Amino acid sequence: MTAAVFATLLAGCNSGDDGEEGGSANIRATVISTFRPGSNETRFGALEFVGGLELSSDNALLGAISAIRFRPDQRNFISVLDTGHWLTGAIERDDGGRLKGIGDARIMPMIERRGAADVGKGGLDAEGLALRGNQVLVSYEQYHRVDAYPDPGFEISPPDGALPVPIPRLQLRANRGLEALMIAPQSSPLAGGAVIVTEESLDDEGNMLAAILDGPLNGRFTIRHHAGFSVSDGVFLPDGDLLLLERRFALMHGLGARIRRIAGKDIKPGAVVDGEVIFEAGSGDQIDNMEGIDVFRATDGSLHLILISDDNHSILQRSLMLEFRLHDENVMSQNEK
Q1: Per-residue pLDDT tens digits for 182-232
Q2: Cα gap 110→106, rounded to integer Å
Q3: Are 267 and 273 in contact (CB under 8 A)?
Q4: What is the pTM of this model?
Q5: Which residues contact 182 (CB under 8 A, 6 or more apart)?
């Protein structure tokens, strides 16, 4: 979710009735060719801008996208909306390989544990998403939990399991709770374990609460909190490092987004971790309320990141999908071998 002041400013700007029924969604896409308007610059920190889309639809349910995960084909994806809906679809590319649209899109209501689909935002405030084996894992705020849905069949099924969260419920802030959900590589010390990071639930030292939910190193750890930024999502790189997406809204500085890279070897129970900022953008760039991130390896061997934004169903915001190439010395050296 956005910062409290952002939500206050946007109150009353909802674009219409979100509706409850799902179905096909004809998504219109406007191509974003430059990340910094008026500039041909493509390199921003460790990232190179590849292309982007601004998304819209006559289906009023489109919006409020919280997280995105791609299937192994690097085309089909699953997203969750914090209104309690699934969004599935496939990215389309032009002849040059750049994003040009979204096809086969469907929006379906999520089903909670008792089989109900219309339980209000407090019951299905989906924030984090991860794919592992034959499960789709979803983390929720307000009624804090991590539920496991069957895959295939998640769109029409209630969860058939849950992962225990070792963070005491009373330490989780209602709207700043279980925000980012990631799966570590099987080859890493975390051995495919699920990791959760809170948006802005802090310990007594002001660090963000986080936990390894299962695997050989399950337990709690914390992440240094940098004033002004809140966690919105994360993803593990193949080498085991964690990319943490954070966003900012302040009256003085406006919108902001950045990515921190945290060394995978540092993530363990009891640790306090931090990382280098490898990307940062502000109000002068093509960003909005950046909420989700995923990574995949392109055909040339490079790693690409997809970032998406949550428009809060507000006429003042946009649903964006942005693609970047990660310039990573570790990846390059591995490809040369």
Answers
A1: 999 999 999 999 999 999 999 999 999 999 999 999 999 999 999 889 999
A2: 12
A3: yes
A4: 0.91
A5: 128, 130, 194, 195, 197, 234, 235, 236, 242
